[in-house]
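My main concern about presentation is that the manuscript never shows what a single data entry looks like. An entry of this sort, consisting of the sequence and the corresponding backbone structure tokens, reads as follows:
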Amino acid sequence: MLNETSARQLWETLEKKYLMKSIESRLQLKRRLYRFQMKKGLSADEHMNNYTKLFTDLVNVDVKIDEEDKAMILLNSLSDEEYETFTLTLINDRQTLNYNEVSAALVNYELRRQDSLSSHGSTSTEALAVRDKGSNRKGKGDCERSKSRSSFRDLKKNQCTFCEGLGHWKVDCSKAKGNKKESKTEANHARVVNTHASTS
């Protein structure tokens, strides 16, 4: 440029140089746009910020992309594992797509997804705590059951489980029957006392 003598020559040289750079950057930006994908570990907000920045750069080099293509490129850039259902739901039964609608729907979906993940995490923690308590109780019950089973095994074939006497079972045990009669009498006596107390 130092060799250029007139202003016109200088202008033409600058124009060629920056026009070439503009074409190169436009092609590079378009390449980035069509290969744009959501990076692992990136939130939807960060992904959309990167997408908006890329579109701003494209606008600065006079690249125009219509709203529907803009929306479709954003949807295609999302991870299939996490957003396939969202994408299919948004596309089905639609004639056209609008970028603003898609971006708003994505923000709402992401908020709901984060809420459900956080509530699911706390629920699973509570479930684990309950499961631990239940397994402790279950363990105690198993010990008690095994003790009672072992005591049954210690009894002989015709031995009563109530008085441990030989020759009869608990159903036929006179002591067990007497114990039941006493408990019934005590219960009746308690009812009578409660009735007198309530009437007086």
User: Anything to note?
Assistant: The chain is about 75% helix and 0% strand. Residues 66-154 form one domain. The two ends are 121 Å apart (CA to CA).
